[in-house]
Amino acid sequence: MRKLLFLVVLPAFLFSCSNLKQTVENKPTPSLKLISSIEIPFEETFQNTKVGGLSGIDYDAKNELYYLISDDRSMFNDSRFYTAKIRLFENKLEGIDFQSVSTLKNETGTAYGNWNTTPTTSSDPEDIRFNPKTNTLVWSSEGARVITADKEVLQDPSLNFMDLKGDFLGNVTLPENLKMQKQEKGPRNNGTLEGITFDKKYKHIYTNIEEPLFEDGDQANTSKGGLIRFYQFDAKTKKNTAQYGYQLEPIAREPNPKGAFGVNGVSAIQYYGKNQLLVVERSYSTGTQACTIKVFLCDLKKATNVKNHKTLQNQKLELASKKLMLNMDDLGIFIDNIEGLTFGPKLANGNPSLLFVSDNNFSDKQKTQILVFELVK
What we know:
Elements: E1 4-5, E2 10-14, E3 20-24, E4 28-29, E5 31-40, E6 45-46, E7 49-50, E8 54-60, E9 65-70, E10 80-89, E11 92-103, E12 125-131, E13 136-141, E14 144-147, E15 152-155, E16 158-162, E17 168-171, E18 193-198, E19 204-209, E20 227-234, E21 240-247, E22 262-273, E23 276-285, E24 292-299, E25 317-318, E26 321-327, E27 338-346, E28 352-358, E29 368-376
Pfam families: Phytase-like
Domain Phytase-like: 49-362
InterPro entries: Phytase-like_dom
């Protein structure tokens, strides 16, 4: 992959709300080069659990161990996470060896409930991160906002801390705009907390909502992207310290039939450097099996802290900047529902590796993929 280089400073990208701007600095953009990939078979099981729905991944470099979380809402087995060894030899993925599986526990010390039978006690796991400073884990749940004639579930999203066995250690204090409401205010169902990442010193936790809050405007469509927020939490106090606006891309493909379901949102993030995140935007449209996955380098340095902004509409503020690093459509291979990424071990040439994992939604029509890229700075 070639490096992308912006030769001029672009003053600002202007959006539909003329007071929103996004400044892009004149700096080289790193690139990603695919070096290897494998698939985990749909029939894969481990210790009597169904391996699937892998929606988050992280790497413990000291122990050369990966953590992977499943988004099973206790419908196949209890909500859980795995540890695994991923064999990468001479820049080739040779396989994955699962080491353990642990049940996610709630504050009462019990497993989360089955979404179909006891939805108010269930969870919707999305991402997982390991903290080597405390030897603990943090994971996200999207919660739920379901309001129908025969069912009403309002369950707040959450960032939860646990030990390495899955026992509950606490959670962050949610800002008001992340709490589910019956009226169209706050998060959308299935569009809340997705990615998690620590900063370099593990003092801050970053997370994101997948789609816009109701008050921040419309969801992405094929002509225009929506506005989402990144959230920064203090890892010690567990309180929200900052929020930043981010402009999504439009939905990549027209759904077929026209008017059918389509979505574009941020499915994963990874800390890259001071004020910088790697951001995965995932677009899916009915009628196309593959997803369009774009990886951006996002910079929060000049972004306005919108923590006290009740809406991003009609505001004078600066959004996080973004530069495209990779559109996986350009790889010429099938790419499924990418939901997790992490830095892995250094490659033989000294460059960092970056691993992506896809969520097959427990469907035999989808694939669980692990892809390894070389990061070229």
